[in-house]
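Thought: the user asked what RNA polymerase sigma-70 factor, ECF subfamily looks like in 3D. I have the sequence; next I should run the structure tool and report back without guessing.
Action: structure_tool
Action Input:
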Amino acid sequence: MDETSCDYIKAVLEKYSDMLRRICYLYLKNPADVDDVFQETFLALLQHGKSFESPEHEKAWLIRVAINKCKDVMKCFWYRKTEPIDGIELAFETRAENELMQLVLELPSKYKDVIYLFYYEEYAVPEIASMLGRKENTIYSQLYRARGILKEKIGSKDYEYVF
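Observation:
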């Protein structure tokens, strides 16, 4: 590995590491599995060898690879036979943000993906549709349903979030 590719990987790692770890945690909820998938994602970047059209294309590619690798782990026999560790605190600034993320984590995967990409990574619906290989109208429907589920869960709490 030459100096420039090493610098490139360091820059990408600095720029996207937090986002990719959060995405992996959304799926796996196990820090050890998150670390494994995180490393595999960057190994895939090293092996990719092609340049990206833009930083957004690079980011979308990394997200797609991380999600696919998380799904591969979830298909594994050993993963299905283990229980996630409860009580791990996510690193958010306020208690309310932390509780909201816990509610998002409880959503079915198809809703969790779109909520995370839309609200936390601030992707537009067409971009999410392209990343997840779904139709735009499907993404709109899933956002609507996910918001409904979250509002219902939040309604039983003492505070309110704005969606």
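Thought: the tool returned a structure. Summarizing for the user.
Final Answer: Structure for RNA polymerase sigma-70 factor, ECF subfamily predicted. The chain has two domains: 1-88, 92-163. Residues 3-28 form the longest helix (26 residues).
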